[in-house]
Each structure stands twice: as C-alpha cells, then as structure tokens.
Amino acid sequence: MDLHFGDSKPTDDERAAVDALLGPPESSWEGADRSDADLRWARGGRAARDRRDLLLPGLHALNDRIGWISEGALDYLCRRLTVPPAEAYGVATFYALFSVRPRPATVLHVCTDLACAAAGASELCAGIEGRLGPGSGVSVQRSPCLGLCERAPAALAVKAGDPVRTAVSAPATVEQAVLAASAPDSAPEEPAAVMAVPQAGDPSLTLLRRVGVVDPASLDDYRAHGGYTALRRAFELGPAGVIREVTDSGLVGRGGAAFPTGRKWQATASQPDHPHYVVCNADESEPGTFKDRVLMEGDPYALVEAMTIAGYATGAHRGYLYLRGEYPRALRRLEHAIAQARARGFLGDDVLGQGYAFDIEIRRGAGAYICGEETALFNSIEGYRGEPRSKPPFPVEKGLFGKPTVENNVETLVNVLPVLTMGAPAYAAVGTAGSTGPKLYCVSGSVDRPGVYELPFGATLGELLELAGVRDGLRAVLLGGAAGGFVRADEMDIPLTFEGTRAAGTTLGSGVVMAFDGTVPLPRLLLRIAEFFRDESCGQCVPCRVGTVRQEEALHRIAERTGAAAADDIALLREVGRAMRDASICGLGQTAWNAVESAIDRLGAYA
Ligand code: SF4
Ligand code: FES
User: What's this model's pTM, rounded to 2 decimal places?
Assistant: First the structure.
C-alpha cells in the first residue's frame, strides 16, 4: 500500500474528534508522541484492512465536530486507519454531506426536490439567502429530497460542534428555517412521527399500528403492544421454520426490486462461508420516499426485533443498519432502542436466553442516493466510495466484507413481524395472489392529507388518492419516485400491485405516489429529475455518467419547445435512454430515463 501524507497537521479539535472515535493513538506513526511503543508497533495487511470500515464514521466525526474535513484532519484519520490519503479523499468527496473545503459550521440543507419544488422551494431558498447574507455563518445548500415530503417544503440545519446539533424545519418558512440554522437548540420540536400517518388509529393497520400508540423510547411499552412476540415465535420455529414461514407468506422486497424475501434468506443461510451478515438498508433516498423514516421514528424497536429475526434465520450474528445521513431523529431513536435492547438482553451474547448472539451497529450514510443500491452500500460501509459492484457474485454469496449477506430494507423487515405473529397463511391472504400483505405508500404533492398510507396490495391508485384527499386539477401522478414513471389523471384504476403496475406499463417502485396539478410546469419537473440523476450518478460506467448529462442538456434545450422544434432532441433522448437502460451497471442508470420517457409517451410532454 502506498501511503503519502502531506505536511498539514490536524488542529486539537480535529484530533479530538478522531480520538473520540478511535481512542488515543498508540504510536508516533499514528500521530502520538514518540515512545518505546514505536519500536513494537506495526499495522499492515489484514490489521489495516480490518479498520478500513471506520473511515466513514471517522469522516462523520470530523464533519460533525468541525463542519468540514481539512487536509490535516484527513491525514490524521488516514494515519490512524492506515488508509492512503488519496483514497480517503476520494471517499470524502463522494458524499454530499461532507466538504473538503472550509465552510461555515452551520449548513442549512434546503430541499429543492419535486414535492418541495411544487410547494415553493425556490422562493424559500431565495428568501433564506436574502435574509442570511454572506457573513451569516450559515452555508445554504440546495438539497435533494430530505425525506420530509409530507411537510414540504423542508429544510434541515446541521450545526457542527461537540455535540453536533440538528434542527428540522418543515413545512419551512423563511423565518423558521433561519431560526433552525442560527439557533438549532431553540427551534421548535418536530411534530411527532404519527403526524405523518393520516390513518392513525385505524384498527385495520398492521405495519403502522404502533406508530403514535407506542412510546418510541420505551422497550416496555413496545412489549406491552405486542413487541418481541415475533422473535419468541421465531425461536420456537427455529431458523429453517422461520425461512419457511417467510417463503410461504409470499413476502417480497419492498425497496423496488420485489425479490422474494424467503428465497434471499434461504440462499444466505445455506452458504458454507462464514460469518454471515444482515444489513438493513435504511438509506431511503428515492425522492418522495419517507415511509421508513416514519417507521423508524415511530416504532424503532420493531426494526431492531425484525433484524434480530433475520439474523437468527440466516445464521448471522452481526447486523448493520445503514441509515440515511439526513435522518437525525431516526438516528437518535434507533441508537436508544439498540442500547436498551442490548441492556435488557434482547441483543447481545445470549438473546432472550436462547443461546443466540446478535448485535446491531448503525452506520450513517452521508448523502449519496447510490448507496441505496445494495452493493454500493456494502462498499460504503467498508470505507470505499459507494460505487455499485458488478453482479454476480450476488450478496447472498459475497456481500458485505465478501461474506454471505442478506440485505433488506426497513419496510420489508418490518413485514416479517406480522408474518410470524399472524402466520404465513393469514399474511398471504392479505393483498392479491401475486402481491401479498400490506404495503406502505408515501403520498405527497397536490393532496390535502399527505403522509404514509397503509393499504393491502390491490387497492387502486384512485382509492389511495381519494383517502389522501387529492385536489382538483390533478394533472399527473409520479409512481415510484424519480426512478419510476408518470401516469395520467385518467388512469386511477391502476391496481397498486407489482403485477398490476407492470401490466399498466409503469412501476410501484418503493411506494412513492406524488400528485401534481398544473401549477408546476412538467418540463421543470423533468429537468429536476434529470438534474438529480446527473448529480447522483456515481460516474463509474460511461452510459450513465455521460447519458445522464446528455439527458439533462437535451431537456434544457427543449424546456420551452414543443412539436417539431423538440423532435430532434426527443429522438436523442430516446437513444440515450436506451443506451442507459441497456448498458448501465446498476439500477440508477437503468432507470434514469423512465420518468422522462413516461412523461413524453404518457403525458404528451413537448407534443
Ligand atoms: S449506472 Fe450510474 S450509478 Fe450505477 S454504477 Fe453506473 S455510473 Fe454508477
Ligand atoms: S423533502 Fe422535499 S421532496 Fe422530499
């Protein structure tokens, strides 16, 4: 390994931030004073590789304490972890939440994504910038979706320090956002997670039934509301029995790919290589998605229990929960829940006295949509740039740290609880034959009651939008987020199932349902989607890296054109779209043209 360090030195604060994570340095090589230990100390090969996964937490530690990552700080972190600084620089610059250039200690992320754009994000940004001015000590950054779409427009203030402070303002006004940035501690408390669940109290709810009912900070309250019944049943069934139930339930992944969960678990469990890992993908970054946030904030123990069951079934003893960096409240709740579960024997060396060891570690993402792709997420945890890997080998065989790994998103895992408490036949009776169980939808945009909705698979788009109070003048609905597709206002009969949306030539994706009236011009929405993909492409493969740029350029050119004046660029868009779909390595490039294509073909954009 080639290690080239510069001459820059860390400040005392930077050093303290790294040492708080890694402990004091052991030798002068790591940045301590020279001592006898230097003669005995060596770390290379496997020992160095074993610590590489602390790079992302280390970068977070610096960014949280100082607000940005200086060369001296990066060098010090690299010495401590034996990571080449050039590689660490590549990692630090990969993530939108980090900066390697000096910036004020407070960053105000203002969402300018679809739902927020429709709710006046541009005016909000202009107002905030006008109020704060250059010498305010606050850096205002336009951000992709912050996962607060039900309260658009949204802003998130992060004030570096020890400890770092955060404040959410949503729906944001100029005054509230400025207050959140300048004095996060005095900003008003966020509304409870249940405020995002318009159906709260409905006895037919399964996945959302505890949100707003249970105290998210109390393990006892969780147990009093049925918590840990599923894990006890799992221990009765044994690992193979759990996998059989999950398979028989027909549960498929809710992240968008709809892969059968039981098959994934079985494939991981049967791998001879060890250790096995469970990874929860809580990096929901699809614009318009916020259901996992609501689940994690409102019912955090459910996820801890579900991950434990997944670990037990697949023979894993360690779980990683990769959480979106923009979810500070979910982070606090989950940290607390995991600590409580550990203290009370629901995690640890002997879970519930059953002789099974399992523990969970939270890893924070840092603002990269692509890390929602399963193998990119592994690279991110391992301390590399979050670039997707080529498959095969698939994660069930070679996943995190090259070991068999089962990866599920939050909603999928939380579904395992009713599978075990109701039993597979009862669960499979909910929904349709091809799409079983309940499904969560994130409804936002032009509706009176935006929020997370739970309906059995098979309800129609019209029924869902009626529940949410769709407003007059509906022009289009975006299903599945930026990677999904638009449908027309007269297509309300589309059944919300995997097979139904497929038959209708669209996708359910991760459950985003964004309603648009005519107030935001369609070309502006499409430009925003194109900008998002260009920005979030990891750049690893040419069709996506170049295609997303060409797509955005063409959409800029035709923003004000229609008919024959747009024809050449539409033909180009189709060609580029086909190349991205056919030749990109991962789902980002493969879906980057979906929404634009659907707007052209279904909504008649630019006609
Ligand atoms: S398709 Fe795009 S995001 Fe995916 S690996 Fe290629 S460049 Fe990266
Ligand atoms: S929070 Fe703004 S679009 Fe989701």
Answer: 0.96
